[in-house]
Amino acid sequence: MTILFAPRLTHTLRLPGGDRVTVRPAYPGDAEILQSYIRRLSATSRYNRFFGPLRELPPAELDRATDADLPGRATLIAEISASKPAMIGEARYAVLSDHACEFAISVADTWRGKGLGSVLVRNLQCRVRDLGIPTLVGDVLRSNEGMLAFARKAGFGIAARSVDPKLVRIVKDISVPQAGRPCEELAVPSLLTAA
Q1: 106 forms bridges with which residues in the sheet?
Q2: Cβ neighbours of residue 36 closer than 8 Å, sequence gap 6 or more
Q3: Structural domains of the chain, count
């Protein structure tokens, strides 16, 4: 398997309501920021994101999520700037093969319905497409009707079967950029910076 790696970028993106959100890779120093974010999610949000009850990430999972040097995988942190940056979402991806990349996202409960999930998924699609991977896949609990509706709206289809009867696999061909704003225009032009 040959994997090409695009440079790790920090993007400042604009939400539909005008808020600016910074999306950047997580690093080892972000462990407590990420753990605090997970703790602040509602019990339902944590269950839907991690497929079971948990209050925080186990140490090994937290280490994986903040290890910026793992080939073919990354955790992206979405933050807003106030007096101190606040984490409001996260996206993770892991390259499965030359043809598919698995992803998962979460949005802070207070930021739902503001377009953050859509912006994160579009940004993630651009990053994964830059790696040369044509398909984005994710597992979703069958009971997570909100995420399934979001996935359909974002252009994902449902795979014929899943390995777990509790889960549904969502799939999207991202090999060709879709109509709308190109990846370069998703970021606020004057705020695009390399990490």
Answers
A1: 90
A2: 87
A3: 1
SS3 at position 13 = strand
Half-sphere exposure of 56 (CA within 13 A, CB side): 13
Q: The CATH number of the domain where 123 resides is what?
A: 3.40.630.30
pLDDT tens series, the chain, 195 aa: 333 333 357 888 899 999 999 999 999 999 999 999 999 999 999 999 999 999 999 999 999 999 877 778 899 999 998 678 899 999 999 999 999 999 999 999 999 999 999 999 999 998 899 889 999 999 999 999 999 999 999 999 998 776 788 999 999 999 987 655 556 545 443 333 333
Residue 1 lies in a domain: no
Supply the range of the domain harboring residue 77. 9-188
Alpha-helical segments (H) within 5-57: 31-40, 43-50
In a domain, 73, yes or no: yes
Provide the whole-model pTM. Answer: 0.84
